[in-house]
């Protein structure tokens, strides 16, 4: 597991497709994987569909720092993608986001 001086940041994002848009959201998420993995500071970016719940997705991301995550979120392509994503998901993007910080025993 990669650890950085400031500690990495993990993002869990739960997204639910609007009814009838399940395949569209899956395709949208699929297209976002490689560009996100290529962003500076990305450690891991994995997309999952929840078994038995078509149209429910979980994205798991790890970034070297909060600053690099913020750079990813503020990339010009994200400004173009967010409106498209909002057409596909139930609720807001923020509703499904959880930021996690790792901790470990001292020794």
From TrEMBL:
* A GO term for molecular function: monooxygenase activity
Q: Give the SUPFAM superfamilies listed for this entry.
A: Dimeric alpha+beta barrel
Name the source's superkingdom.
Bacteria
| Segments forming domain ABM | 9-97
Keywords tagged on the record:
Monooxygenase, Oxidoreductase
Q: Which organism is it from?
A: Saccharothrix coeruleofusca
Q: What is this protein called?
A: Antibiotic biosynthesis monooxygenase
In this record, what's one Pfam family?
ABM
